[in-house]
Design goal:
6-stranded parallel β-sheet; 9 strands; 259 residues; 3-stranded parallel β-sheet; globular
């Protein structure tokens, strides 16, 4: 079984997404052997009120909760975020958060973000942080949203050692404190979709430095197809037991395993 921690449902303001309905995403997952996926609302990234995207996501995944694990997009710069978090966690049963500081006009070091992370820790909710939504070369001329810098996340995981962080769509982390052993709390895992498995072999370097329990499989679908991430895992020079941890075991530890 494969557990994808990096998937989306809904629309994105600046490009057409295929396979972005529950039925479409599940068909794509079935065709690639992916059993479960943690999903958030793509619409919430660009909605002025991202809670509307969370509401749409809740309704969309309701018949598919055995396979689609909903994550709430919360904007701590928005005055009503505390109510949004309460509703998403207690009423909607969402199992984690996704944060988009560059899109939602705040910094991870801002007091509002600090308060939100502390609230997530108190609720035992994992916090996923996409370093980017899409390749800069594909972005609309109407927006100029930079990638998150590794240093911003380094400071975050230091400040919240009891947090559980999931780093998505990141590359080049092996050369930073996030990819070196013993420099930071072991409170984060790294999703592999942008890391190399052959040239540079960043995935292998991260495995050697951090251990097999710190990497997880993700694809970014439907912004991207899952095939490249699946191929990276296939060609990875690692024992099958390690690949199985990356494939599903570590993600199941974060979000629970119905089996």
């Amino acid at each position: 079984m494969i557990f994808d921690v990096n998937a989306y449902l809904g629309h994105f303001a600046f490009r057409q997404l295929r396979h972005n309905t529950p039925e479409g995403l599940l068909r794509l997952m079935d065709s690639k052997g992916i059993e479960r996926a943690a999903v958030s609302s793509a619409s919430a990234i660009t909605y002025r009120n991202c809670q509307s995207g969370n509401e749409e996501l809740f309704a969309a995944v309701k018949p598919h909760r055995d396979r689609l694990i909903p994550l709430a997009v919360i904007n701590p710069f928005y005055a009503g975020w505390r109510d949004d978090l309460e509703i998403c966690h207690q009423q909607f049963g969402m199992q984690g958060l996704r944060l988009y500081p560059k899109w939602h006009n705040y910094a991870l070091a801002d007091p509002c973000a600090e308060e939100l992370i502390s609230a997530a820790v108190e609720r035992n909710l994992p916090v996923s942080i996409p370093f980017r939504v899409e390749d800069y070369r594909q972005r609309s001329w109407l927006v100029d949203v930079p990638d998150i810098r590794p240093a911003e996340v380094v400071d975050l995981v230091k400040k919240h050692p009891k947090g559980r962080f999931l780093l998505l769509n990141a590359a080049g982390l092996s050369g930073t404190p996030l990819g070196r052993p013993g420099e930071l709390p072991a409170n984060y895992v790294i999703e592999i979709s942008r890391a190399s498995a052959v040239l540079g072999n960043e995935i292998g370097q991260l495995l050697a430095a951090l251990g097999p329990d710190r990497l997880v499989f993700g694809s970014g679908m439907p912004f991207t197809y899952p095939d490249p991430a699946l191929l990276k895992l296939e060609v990875l020079d690692a024992p099958e037991q390690v690949k199985e941890q990356v494939r599903r075991g570590n993600a199941a530890g974060l979000f629970g395993d119905p089996t």
